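User: Fold this, then the next.

Assistant: Folding the first:
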Amino acid sequence: MGELVRLEVADGVGTIRLDRPKMNAISAQLQDELRECAEEATARDDVAAVVVYGGERVFAAGADIKEMADLSFPQMNVRAQALQAALNAVAAIPKPTVSAITGYALGGGCELALCTDVRFAADNAKLGQPEILLGIIPGAGGTQRLARLVGPAKAKDLMFTGRQVDAAEALTIGLVDRVVPAASVYEEALAWARQFVGAASLALRGIKEAVDRGLEVDLVTGLEIERHLFAALFATEDQATGMRSFIESGPGKATFEGK
């Protein structure tokens, strides 16, 4: 259990909870604890899906600028590697993940949200990559993940200007996937995650791997990745269970064991 980030597990869903008042600024300690929680969520068999949540008031307002302002190039090079490793660990969780975004998700906070499979935003949320206003660029995946999500033109506009977008615009450009009242964003994210408890976890892992790896390669190579993962699932008990259940009882009746 970390001091600034903790993994809470209930009914098969893990919540990675940032808790560094007031703004969940991403310090070196927070990033290290975030990586540890992501790795724990990956390893735990009782976690079927994961919600990333910053609390009722703010998701994460960005990096701890006071902590990094006076770092030298060699120091920042090491810090940037650790920061990317922390967020990469979230992106690599081989289970469905969702960000429940309240208040601000800026800079490193927006980059953290980009690491999950989907993003649910409160109607009062503000998202953006304002690093240009500090004379720097996003360094925790923003230039790469944002462009892949919303397209290069929209991503460059957000990063060139450093402007914040509200929840409605974020939904329009595809930066978030659902906008809900602030009071219910966490519950909505939990409800989305709970549907995967008892699902075919190895197939879910295969879908995530095929999509994420496929985005990095050409179509022919992506189809080869898909073919191998598809065929590999025929070595699992879940495949046999699912197909037998379909034949005997129709779709949606199988009970999977994740084996």
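Now the next one, as you asked:
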Amino acid sequence: MNKALRNPWTYAAFVVPTLLLYALFFVYPVIVSFIYGLYRWDGVSPKVFIGIDNFKRLLQDAVFLKALGNNLYFMAFSLIVNIPLVFLIAVAISKVRRMRGFYKSAVFIPVVISTATVAILFGVLYDYESGLINQALRLVGGDGWALEWLSKPNLAMLSILIANAWQNVGFFIVLCLAAILNIPREITDAAKIDGVNGWSETRLVTLPLIRPILFVILLLTVSGTLKVLDIVQIMTNGGPFQSTEVMSTYMLKVGFRSLELGYGSAIGVAMFVITMIMTGVLQRMSKSEEVQF
């Protein structure tokens, strides 16, 4: 066994297939998308080379810029609301002594539900006539309290954000909770001896020690909100009046409905570049270091 592990071909047998799959399903599509972005093409007729005109068009496309703004709105909500909520719920569960496993399972259940199911479920809940939310509001304040959650431009995006948060925060809660429970008891006991209790313990001990995990959650949140697609596509399809249009839904409409595959590929490349820039900036800004106990 030791002789096999010293053989470099042993490592190549495991690494090379992974690299080939990575190149096939990630590197190759990115390169092909960039190449297609240099052409005007409907998928049937011969491609016409137009250089970087498709990429220039992005900067003048009001719909694309609005979609980008909606992605940034999605990101801001997730960073300002979801991540603090994840941390607080994880801390609360970590303080529970009884039925902790039940609470962990309860918050994680939405994660295993498909996004299509979540979108349909919340679509039913948001229904103006028969939705449970409006039925409850009518019981409190009458018909005047009922809202058109997915039909009003100022409410549609918020409605999607709530549904998306309900589905995804459970995964991050479990990550954060695992990091909290991994903190050695000696550290927390020493902090209590020094008079650090309650919220002070959370702020001075727990938060600094789980900072690397929080940064991972931050990166996953940023990349996820920049490529969000399915929940928006099913709940509103970018409407009403493009108030919930995001880059992914716009790319699909341009590429497969308008049959502008070249311009759709340019949008895909722009999404990739924006995501890489955002994650790169976060990594440069982050001063977190690996914590060793």
